[in-house]
Amino acid sequence: MANEKPRTAIVIGAGAGGIAISARLAKAGLKVTVLEKNDFTGGRCSIFRSKAGFRFDQGPSLLLLPNLFRETFADFGTTLEAEGVELLQCFPNYDIWFSDGAVFRSSTDTAAMKREIEKWEGPDGFQRYLNWLAEAHGHYEISLQHVLHRNFTNHAQLADPTFVAPTIALHPLESIWSRTTRYFWSDRLRRVFTFATMYMGMSPYDAPSTYSLLQYTELAEGIWYPKGGFQTILAAIERIGRRLGVQYRLNTPVAKVLTGGPDGKTATGVLLESGEKLEADLVIVNADLVYAYNNLFPQESENKSVGPTITPYAKDLSKREASCSSISFYWSFSKKIPELGTHNIFLADEYKESFDAIFKRHTLPSDPSFYINVPSRVDPTAAPPDKDAVICLIPVGHLSATHPASSWPSLVASAKKAVLATVEKRTGLKNLESLIMEETINSPPEWQAKFNLDRGAILGLSHSFFNVLSFRPRTRAKGVRNAYFVGASTHPGTGVPIVLAGAKITAEQILGDKKMEAPWVPLREWKGDVQAKQGHEKRGGGRLDLVKRPLWTDDWNLFLWSVIGLLGVVVVFLAGPAAWGNGGFVGDW
Length: 589
What we know:
The chain has 17 helices and 19 strands. By secondary structure, the protein is of the alpha/beta class. A seven-stranded mixed sheet has the order 7-6-15-16-17-14-18. A five-stranded parallel sheet has the order 9-2-1-13-19, covered by helices on one side. A three-stranded antiparallel sheet has the order 10-11-12, with no helix packed on it. The N and C termini lie far apart (89 Å). Belongs to the carotenoid/retinoid oxidoreductase family. Pathway: Carotenoid biosynthesis. Pfam families: Amino_oxidase (PF01593).
C-alpha cells in the first residue's frame, strides 16, 4: 500500500557488505540506517592519508572479478563509469621475485606468458599451461553460476543433482597445490600458480583447487585498480544508497542486538554503547560474524530465550579454523623506486615451511613470503610528485594462545628487518630504510582492535571444505528471527567482489522472507555476466552474431568415429570365417 509505513532496517557495520546491502534494501523500499563504530566507512576496504600527503589502501589493493562489481552497479541501474569510478589496468600483473635472483613476470599478454613459461618448462610446459587455464576457466564459470549466485540454507542442497553434477568439476576435495602439480612440473611454476590462495587467507597445501579461479581471472580479465583508491568503489555505492535514503551514523558502536516478540526470539533493534536504543524490523550484521555471535547477540547468562542457542554456537565458531592475519607496513618513500612495479610478490625459499609457520604455528615465518604494492606506479595521485607510496603485506598467523597480542611488537620488528633485507638483496636496492619518511603499521592486535576481527584474522573464517557452502555460517542468523549476516565469514565468503555477491544473496533472502520482490534481476534469473550481455546487445544479436554449437565438434567427431569403428568390427565378425585367410583377409591387397 502507498501509505503503508516502510519496513525499517538497521545495518551494523559499514564495510563492503554493509554498504552494498543497505543500498539494495533501500532500493526495495526499506528505511535503512547504517551504524559504524569508526569515523570512516569501508571497513578494511578503506583508505587513509599520511601527514605528508601519501594515500594508502588499508586493505585490498587489487581488483579482481571485475564483472561482479559491474553486476552490483547494473542492479542499481547505473555503471561504474557513470558513478565516477575509473578502473586502471595494472600491467604486468605481478613481478614474482625468487631467492636465486630470477623474476617471473605474470601478465594478460599470452605471448609474454608463452615466453615466460617456456623459459622454465619448454614448449610442452606452455601446452600444459593452456590446459591448466582451461580447467581454471571451468572453475571460474561453475563457481559464478552455482556458488556465487546461489544461497545455501541447508545441507540437502549439496545433494541436488543440478548442483552435484557441475561442481564435481571444481575438484573441491583436492588441494590447489596437488592439482597444480599435474600441469606444472617445476617447483618454480608451481609456486607461481599457487601463491594466490593467500587472497583467501589459506595455504595452497590446504586450499581446495577450486580457487585456481583467482589466478584465472587475473590472467583472463586482468588486475585493476580504481583511480583514487579501492575505497572509491564503495564510496560510489554509498552515494547510491544515500540517494535512495540510506542514513549513516559514524562513531556509533553497537553494544547488543535486542530481541523480543512473544517468544523473545525476534530481533527488535540494537542497543548502542552510548545507551541509546534503536528499534527496527530487521537487523543485518556486517560486523565480524564470530565477534557478533560472541559479543553482540544475547548470551545464555543474560537471555534464556535465545541464549541457549547462541552461546554454544558462538563457542563452536571460536574454535573453527580462521584465515591468516597480516603485518602491513604503509611507507612514505622520499623518492621513486623504479625497480618495483605496481604489484610485487617475494616468495620464500622454504615455501611450504613458510605456510606451516602461518597456519600451523600461527606466527611469523623465519623466511616470509610477502607482497609489495606501489599504488603510485599505476595511480600517481597516491603520492606527491617524485615520491612513492609503498604498502608491504606479510601474511602471518592470527592471534593465539602461543602468540598473544603482547608477542607481536617484536615480531613486527623482525618482519620489517626481513622484508627490507630481502628486497635489497633481490632487487639490488640499497639503504631502503633511510628513504622511509613515514610509517604506519597494522598487525594482528591492530586488526582486532580496529575492526573487531576475531583473532585478528583479516579474511574471516577459513575457506576449507567444511567452512564453505552450507557448512559456512548461514546468512540468516541462528536462533534469532529477522536477523541476518553479510560479509566475509558468511556465505559465499571473503574478498570484496565475493562479499558484494553475498550482499545480493542476503538481500534477496530478506525480501523473500518478507514476500517482497527484488527490484533487480534476481539470482534465479541470472544468466551470465553483465559485460557479456551488454556487449551482445551492442552487437545487435543479428545473424552474424548467432552463437550456435556446430554439429562437427571434437566431441561429436570422437563419438562418430567410435561408432564407425565399432560397426567395422561388427561387420568383420558377421562376415564369418569365410572372409579370413591364413592370418588375414582373403583377396588381393
